[in-house]
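We give the entry.
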Amino acid sequence: MSEIPTLHTDEIMTDAAATTDDLSLVGLRHKTTTTVAIDFGRRTLPGNKIVLYLYGTPGQRRFLPLWEGIAFGALGALVLADTRRLDESFEVMDLIEERGLPYAVAVNDFPDSPQYPTELLRSKLDLDPATPLVTCDARDMNSSLEALIALTAHSISSAAAGAETS
């Protein structure tokens, strides 16, 4: 997704990480790395007027200090949800909502993930009707770009709505 070489902070999983992260789910049993800080990239949108700075952070509350530093000044957030473990999305959505950031949810479409109708996903995630919900394959640049476009459009419309009420 990034137009520059990305910063990745994945490290080999230790025994300590294995006891913190649930690896019993299908698709996670052979996981050997985990994100220990942030990933970073940048994407300039067509027309060269908007530059997105892309920060990938773990969503668990134990990373709150790291997340707060990145969220300061952010215009929006994209939550990447996995249908194999939707309950893990609530922590990061709570953090985002507590800060009043507009956000969109992208359900990552893994081949072995359970598929649900959009309205059921909305209900399971307890999403506000205005919160965009899209599916994406995070491994595919075009699919990820569509998710970022949904977030960007939502952030712009949220800012416009906020300006009208002030």
